[in-house]
């Protein structure tokens, strides 16, 4: 049988026909499919990783397409860097969501220089680094030599030294452009009639002045105070916090209530108290005014009990007052 098989060799294959051709094609297709599948799985892992951090993946991929091809370990290395800076993991998702470019940054080239700047140039205690980052995440994407250090030098020349030195509450000023932001705001405050020295004093007392928009905040509030309230600029110097209050929701409504009833208050009295306390104070002022008018008109109050029903008429949806008060005065 073996001899017979040997005397009848198998038919030669046709020319140019490769017995492994179909196998090769099959293997290539399988390899390509496997690679595609692996890429899909890796991408899915990154998406799940970002979603676990509560990052808007669509936004992140749109703003920073490099996230799509970046290795997952690269993303995790950024998170480890933030941990080493003292930033709690619960804040990482918010930081990545605000600035997706952080996801593919180089920790050693981009993040650690910021940490070194905060610790050594600004002299922020390590325990406060997290506060700096949470209050102003933009610090993490700011260039130290071109942005942060020039702003620090300018602020120090302005007077942010000693007890006014930049701290975790004011590091937000470091991300502002000296030429395009800080100087124009100082010039605007001076244009209200303040000397340079007074302007600096106001800024040191209330550094937030340098974070407000000139056209969106400072100018309309200054115009209302000087033109509608007929205020004295000296009062703004004493209370620069005026610019921190909402013009439409607090300054205008309270000023108009006082104006309608002929009363006056200092800016701190008018703005620093809650709605309830302001409303109560307005009631007290009306009662006192009514008492004084009655005393002047009658010359005296009868010695027997006298109930005076006061129709206050100053209730508003924002400051709902009791419309009727019983006021008993014993002679």
Automatic annotation (TrEMBL):
Keyword Transcription part of the UniProt annotation: yes
Gene3D superfamilies assigned: Transcription termination factor 3, mitochondrial (1.25.70.10)
Chain positions covered by the region annotation Disordered: 1-37
Keywords: Transcription, Transcription regulation, Transcription termination, Transit peptide
Low complexity bias locations: 23-37
Polar residues bias (residue ranges): 7-22
Biological process annotations from GO: DNA-templated transcription termination
GO molecular function: nucleic acid binding
InterPro entries given in the database record: MTERF, MTERF_sf
Pfam families: mTERF
Keyword Transcription set for record: yes
Family: Belongs to the mTERF family.
Name under which the protein is recorded: Uncharacterized protein
């Amino acid at each position: 049988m073996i001899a017979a098989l040997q005397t009848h060799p198998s038919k030669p294959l046709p020319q140019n026909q490769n017995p492994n051709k179909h196998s090769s094609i099959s293997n290539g297709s399988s390899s390509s499919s496997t690679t595609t599948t692996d890429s899909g799985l890796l991408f899915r892992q990154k998406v799940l990783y970002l979603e676990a951090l509560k990052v808007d993946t669509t936004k992140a991929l749109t703003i920073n397409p490099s996230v799509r091809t970046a290795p997952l370990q690269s993303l995790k290395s950024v998170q480890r860097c933030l941990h080493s800076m003292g930033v709690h993991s619960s804040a990482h998702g918010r930081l990545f969501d605000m600035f997706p470019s952080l996801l593919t940054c180089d920790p050693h080239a981009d993040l650690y220089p910021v940490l070194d700047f905060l610790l050594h140039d600004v002299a922020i205690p390590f325990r406060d680094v997290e506060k700096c980052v949470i209050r102003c995440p933009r610090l993490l994407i700011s260039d130290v030599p071109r942005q942060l250090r020039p702003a620090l030098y300018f602020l120090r020349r302005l007077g942010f030294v000693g007890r006014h030195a930049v701290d975790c509450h004011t590091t937000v000023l470091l991300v502002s452009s000296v030429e395009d932001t800080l100087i124009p705001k100082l010039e605007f405050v001076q244009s209200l009639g303040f000397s340079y020295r007074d302007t600096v004093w106001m800024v040191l007392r209330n550094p937030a002045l340098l974070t407000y928009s000139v056209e969106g905040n400072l100018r309309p509030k200054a115009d209302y105070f000087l033109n509608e309230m007929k205020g004295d600029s000296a009062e703004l110097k004493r209370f620069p916090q005026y610019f921190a209050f909402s013009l439409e929701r607090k300054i205008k409504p309270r000023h108009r209530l006082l104006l309608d009833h002929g009363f006056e208050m200092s800016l701190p009295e008018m703005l620093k108290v809650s709605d309830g306390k302001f409303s109560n104070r307005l009631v007290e002022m009306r009662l006192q005014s009514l008492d004084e008018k009655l005393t002047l008109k009658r010359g005296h109050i009868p010695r027997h009990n006298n109930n005076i029903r006061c129709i206050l008429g100053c209730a508003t949806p924002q400051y709902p007052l009791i419309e009727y008060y019983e006021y008993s005065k014993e002679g």
